[in-house]
Amino acid sequence: MARNQSEAEEPASAANKQGKGKMLLWVGVGLLALLLSAGGLAYALMARPATNTTTEASSAPVARQPALYQPLEPAFTVNYAQDGRQRYMQVHVELMGRDPQAMKTLAGHLPLIRNELVMLFGRADFQSLSTAEGKEALREQATAAVQELMTQEFGTAVIESVLFTNLVLQ
Predict the structure, then answer these.
(1) C-alpha distances out from residue 30 to 21, 43, 130, Å
(2) Fewer Cβ in 10 A, N or C end of the chain?
């Protein structure tokens, strides 16, 4: 009798093994399909930006030259009469440009630039300089004045910006 039970268990375990084998086969097929679809998606996503970057690269402008700075030494000191009191402004100025040859030529005209900036700073309203907007407006006016002066001298603006590296009001 014991033999009959073991014979009955053998076909059941063989059927379980076949069922597990089929299940493993289907899991493998499912994983393979998942991997293939993920690979196709990755390929599609990577291929699309490559075509866009080539068109963007061909239409991109040429890289800008690095910035060059010309300090105007010594610092500018301007006095103001405000409400019957003497007030002072001290500002350190640097000129920023990108063309090395033009910046070298600019150095020969620093007295002319300094004169223009002294006149501009002297006309500024001391009260408006106490705000950040007033300081930025003065910096923009200085940039425009120097660019106009350099355009008259060289035919081009030469500088990109006038920078205030230190500004003290007293």
Answers:
(1) 14, 20, 72
(2) N
In three-state secondary structure terms, 75 is strand
Structure tokens at 157: 């603006």
- 92 touches 165 (CB < 8 A): yes
Sheet holding 68-82, edge to edge: 68-82, 85-97, 159-169
Q: Tell me the pLDDT of the chain (170 aa) as tens digits.
A: 555 555 555 555 665 667 777 777 787 777 767 667 776 666 766 665 544 444 454 555 667 789 999 999 999 999 988 888 999 999 999 999 999 999 998 888 999 999 999 999 999 988 899 899 999 999 999 999 999 999 998 888 889 999 999 999 98
Q: Which CATH number fits domain 68-169: 3.40.50, 3.30.479, 1.10.10, 3.30.70?
A: 3.30.479
Please give the structure tokens belonging to residue 40. Answer: 């196709």
